[in-house]
Amino acid sequence: xxxxxxxxxxxxxxxxxxxxxxxxxxxxxxxxxxxxxxxxxxxxxxxxxxxxxxxxxxxxxxxxxxxxxxxxxxxxxxxxxxxxxxxxxxxxxxxxxxxxxxxxxxxxxxxxxxxxxxxxxxxxxxxxxxxxxxxxxxxxxxxxxxxxxxxxxxxxxxxxxxxxxxxxxxxxxxxxxxxxxxxxxxxxxxxxxxxxxxxxxxxxxxxxxxxxxxxxxxxxxxxxxxxxxxxxxxxxxxxxxxxxxxxxxxxxxxxxxxxxxxxxxxxxxxxxxxxxxxxxxxxxxxxxxxxxxxxxxxxxxxxxxxxxxxxxxxxxxxxxxxxxxxxxxxxxxxxxxxxxxxxxxxxxxxxxxxxxxxxxxxxxxxxxxxxxxxxxxxxxxxxxxxxxxxxxxxxxxxxxxxxxxxxxxxxxxxxxxxxxxxxxxxxxxxxxxxxxxxxxxxxxxxxxxxxxxxxxxxxxxxxxxxxxxxxxxxxxxxxxxxxxxxxxxxxxxxxxxxxxxxxxxxxxxxxxxxxxxxxxxxxxxxxxxxxxxxxxxxxxxxxxxxxxxxxxxxxxxxxxxxxxxxxxxxxxxxxxxxxxxxxxxxxxxxxxxxxxxxxxxxxxxxxxxxxxxxxxxxxxxxxxxxxxxxxxxxxxxxxxxxxxxxxxxxxxxxxxxxxxxxxxxxxxxxxxxxxxxxxxxxxxxxxxxxxxxxxxxxxxxxxxxxxxxxxxxxxxxxxxxxxxxxxxxxxxxxxxxxxxxxxxxxxxxxxxxxxxxxxxxxxxxxxxxxxxxxxxxxxxxxxxxxxxxxxxxxxxxxxxxxxxxxxxxxxxxxx
Length: 815
Fold this sequence. Notes:
18% of the residues lie in helices and 35% in strands. The protein is built from 14 helices and 45 strands.
């Protein structure tokens, strides 16, 4: 097989078919330079036609783009030898969304789904030498609205017409994202010259795993272009095992079973290694190689356990027979303009998730089925994937044409992704049934338009094409009300969205929480890049524009006021907002981990952002971590200490995610904010494997004798002298603390080429110490940490500056 890439330079222009082009933009009716993969918006930005839609309120000025048709064209040259084959396929990996394709003036086909690969046999349209391809994209908004008028409005959150189009739903605007409904060739496009036949849909299905062997079913489909005999050669290989088999092709599929000896099992992050195997399939005809496909795979079993218990019914995952407490976050697309996501951005975000002890990422149903790079990284990093299908927050059509499009999409997606061990569950949608039942208290999910998709169609496809992992109808879903706490999975939005403060998390008894969250602003440097000085106060129109939740800014201020003395600076507003978010997620995560495995998972909303915005993310769109990221590294620690206030004292809990019991030393101290030790207790404890246990209890008599605004309780877990986990519980809100200022000490030293260590010390307690480097983005290995009076902490980082300059530029803030 030969491939001719059509990525790179194209020409594009607007076609004002709907007569909605503003007069000031008529220049886009001429040919301009575009780039593939890309989008209309990024091409217009590169041409200087529009300003950055992320900057200030420029989003409002580019809404005219979605109402235009856009024509893309490219001239290319074909060597006549390229056409000496049986077939030539045009392979468009992603066209967004309604597209018509011509080659040399002749119609090739049309598309209506951005989520699937489109393939056309085009040999008869091509010629040796110069050729021309044109792709016309219809307005996604007008097309969808026409469908809505034809078939009737459905009950949908946000833009109601969006459900009629198989396009990333967030592009129509969301409560954290801008309305930038783009079009374009968003993934790669190429021509492939094929002779004899090709292979497709490789699958290594794990049937069973025993101690000394694993049984797999290996299959690959064969598309043949002549009647000559074919052979498929299959190479299966792991680090310590390999096998090869030649199979004569007798039908459309080659399928056989293989036994892998001494299997190396794939484990989630924190539970073991992630060994990968490889399946290489080669199509041969008379000894000549016609085509090859390769697919990684791994050996692991997955089970969703739902059994009756004293609280209702469990909802927990077992991997390789071991119960796993799932810790992680929800994932949204990393950019409003998808082609700007690259391997480096994916790796930065997912490695940071892994380093924060996460073991699960939920791919949210209003975005996209992510790039192959995403899933390969999750495989390698041990990040289990809860994979939503791309439906969110509304009813969906049930017309035959729509159902057929959904079936085709599901078959493509499941076939494409099923070899990834990281994917542990298919999920039908995000919040559709829950929102429907809230709006219709006397109805059930099956009454919802679109229920056929989630109840029947998708589980059928998953079972037939995969069958190795569970299917779940929606997030959230369960028996009875779709968001019950007693069974199924659960979304917790009474806190924050319903104006309840984060201590309310401790009343939630959800069995598996796949959404909860608290907003925070992005880092100041991120806001500085998209604002002018006059914008930089919390209630400016620009800052409020960069918070898409109704009354989002008001909530940020309300919850800061609940806990802190409000700052009168913009940087203080950002800093305190981030600290409140960190404290909120900590409160929730620790509560649910103490309930292990009555609650068996907690995934917060959300890991990342698609543009500069105040949102629920813990890493902003510039990949700068917020305070909550560093908090997550602590509250998701596999061995962690937490406190629970009860009526007559404080319970001390230790969570052990490891698969072996641990012996630890626990020191409890009551300290004043000036660093004076008022009480101490030490004990040796043994924590069973894979459990959370209450290890001791501090009676209120111990601390009630002190001014609650002047003291706090700190606990330290150590193992052989090394600190494993540290936590603090306070008896008054920070806004009421009686705390004097102290002169901090910052000492910086060089520890290697471009590597530094900074030690900070203080005579008084400091909360949420934030280190920063003026003029440079620096990733500290820890940040936003608490520091006891008289104590010190050393943090490492890398910098492009020399030591003298680092010492001048490094600084800190705290509460």
